[in-house]
Design a protein that fits this description.
single chain; 110 residues; mainly alpha; globular
Length: 110
């Protein structure tokens, strides 16, 4: 029986190791990335509305992050503005338990 060779590990943008989790955490850890995703969780927003929702973030950095999030498949540009893709919505669903925990944590005593 011939020996099976494991498939080659695909490289992931932003990660030299090819580990998707490291590339994802790098992308989400960039300034404004998580905030953009969070603000788009319920509705599409124009660039101006998104900038306002993001506390007047610099238009340059906001556009850079939007481009990165679009390239990563989390955000898309439509006639109504920017909105989350299916992957983007799935990502926000993974934030729900963390959001609940953060709410409890912020109300802790001591």
């Amino acid at each position: 029986m011939p020996r099976q060779v494991p498939p080659a590990r695909r490289s992931v943008r932003g990660s030299r190791t090819g580990r998707p989790i490291m590339a994802l955490l790098d992308l989400l850890g960039r300034r404004w990335s998580l905030r953009i995703i969070w603000e788009l969780r319920e509705t599409a927003l124009t660039s101006r509305a998104l900038r306002t929702a993001c506390d007047e973030a610099s238009p340059t950095i906001l556009q850079t992050r939007l481009d990165e999030l679009r390239e990563a498949g989390f955000v898309e540009l439509t006639d109504n503005g920017y909105r989350l893709t299916g992957f983007g919505r799935e990502l926000t669903e993974t934030f729900t338990p963390l959001h609940r925990f953060a709410e409890r944590w912020s109300k802790r005593e001591g």
